[in-house]
Amino acid sequence: MEKKNIILLICTVLSFFTVFAVNAVMVVIPSIASEFHMSNIVQNWITIIFSLVVAVMSVPAGQISGKYGLKKVTILSIILFIIISIVNVLITSAEVFLACRFILGISLSFINVTSMAMIVSAFKPEERGKALGINITGVYVGLSLSPVLGGILNYHLGWRSVVLFGVPFLFVILALLLTKIDEEWITFADIPLDIKGSFSYGIGMVLFMYGFTILNTPLGVLLTILGIIILIIFGLIELRQPHPVFDIRFFKNRKFLSSNFASLCAYLATFAVTTILNYHLQYIKGFDSQSAGMVLLVAPLCQVVLAPIAGRLSDKYVPQILAAIGMALGTISLFLFSFLSAETPIEFLIMSMIIYGVGFGLFSPPNTNVIMSSVPPKDTSVASAAVSTMRTVGQAMSMGILTLIFAFVMGDVPIVEQYYPLLISSCQITCLICVVLCIASVFASFVGIKSDDVGSL
Length: 457
Fold this sequence. Notes:
Helix content is 81%, strand content 0%. The chain is an all-alpha fold and 457 residues long. The protein has 2 domains: 3-193 and 245-447, Up-down Bundle (Growth Hormone, Chain: A); 194-244. Helix 3 (40-68) packs antiparallel against helix 16, helix 14 (319-337) runs antiparallel to helix 17 and helix 16 (380-409) runs antiparallel to helix 17 (420-447). The longest helix has 33 residues, at 125-157. The chain is globular and about 60 Å long. The two termini are 36 Å apart.
């Protein structure tokens, strides 16, 4: 097997398990919440805290991995992933569980950045769309199998088996990296780390995103505003830095800017959908985790089929148009999800999930190809960090929107039968908000089509 194909295999498997670590746990949240007596707000934080850490760490991860080597950073991140997964099964409280999710987020933030950057470094531009399509297929296979495997493992062995599932496979990936890959891909060897920029970005992002999840309180409003101010200061710092942790001048490139904004809106609109559908199936419909996992398979299975096709098409046709068509279908699906109620037939849910899966499968590979191809080769780790940041910020804020609606509509309560009508209303309102975000993503996908600033600032 060619070395570039081994790299693609390694990165695709890593993409699968980074997704599995998030989505399989999402399916078993009701079991975890029951064991640790979590309220509706706290159990949403199982997902939010993970996405928040990845969002904060992805930007410095791009510079750190470029300075010390993509391979080396990937190996250390996998080792941390394995250690924290083992620790996670020994915990006895909600607080320690959330702490483990925090550390796991640090590990996966680096893996997200390095895996995509390695693919872009290993493949020529004319092969990149296809390779990224295959890699994103790993993401969608993870999305497909996570609810099924997570549900089955939880049903028969408990939620701890879900946390440990990826450990043996990651040992194999470690062995391949150590024995088959020689390159380190060091692009920022002589460039100092931007400590000031990294800290200002991290503090600003934490304050903004945490404040956003409690925006229904005066403290939430204050923290959100303070976070925005610090992020503006971060931007000013970066403009003056000779070697910024994230060169925001890339956003002068319309292709880079529009595709990143489209990605942010897309994940804002869609990430909470899996949680909404999972809650609907397990709480409202009374499915067990195994049965719910089988139903949740529908949308990501469509994404698995579409992702490699969309990746190849993005090498031949205008990728922004493909991305816009995908998010238009996503808009339709979210509008349909806004009608979910206790009486909704399962056939209606499945039809809506198919539309959703086809739409997002058509959007992601072309949009990622635009972002990764719109910067110079030496800056692929920065572009990869941007992709990861848009995804994880969007994911965390998507769950933040759901949590915020929960706080306004339900309050801080356990999800039990007497609150099911409020749960349904909360999910319906969230879906309608997400429809607007999907429409924004469609328009953003079109903005950079006429721009010719590819591969340069």
